Amino acid sequence: MKKFLSGKVILRYLYDQLTGNFAGFLIGMSASSLVSRFFETRSIKNLWGLTAKKTVVDKATFSNLEWILSIVIGFIVFEIFTKVVKERIDKNFPKYKIKVMRWMIANHIPEKASAIGLKLNQQRIALFAAVHQAVVKVRTK
Question: Can you tell me where the transmembrane regions are (predicted)?
C-alpha cells in the first residue's frame, strides 16, 4: 500500500529532522569552540607558543580535536533529543495545544488575524490598482 504525502506527513518529517539531526548538528558545531578554550596553536599572537597560557598543539591536531569533539557532542545531543526531549514533547503537546487554543479563543486571536488578513488584502489590491493605473498612463502617453 502506498503512503500518500500529506501536509501532516511532511510536517512530521520536518519536525523529526529539526528536533534531532539539526539540533545535534548545531550544538556539535558550536562545541568545536570548546577546543579553543583548552588548546591553541603556535601563531604570532602567542610568539609561536612561547607566551601561550594554554596547551600548544599543532594545527592538524587542533583541527582533528575540533572535528572529533563536534561529532561526539553532536551525537550525544542528537540521542538526547530523540530519546528524551521528543518523547516529552510528544506526551505533553496535546495538553499545551488545548491551553493555547483556549487562550487564543478567549483573546479573540482568530478574529484579529482575519481582520489583519483582510486589511493586508485591501492594501495589496490598492497597490495593484495604483501600479496598473500608472502603467496605463505611461502607455497612453
Answer: 21-39, 67-85
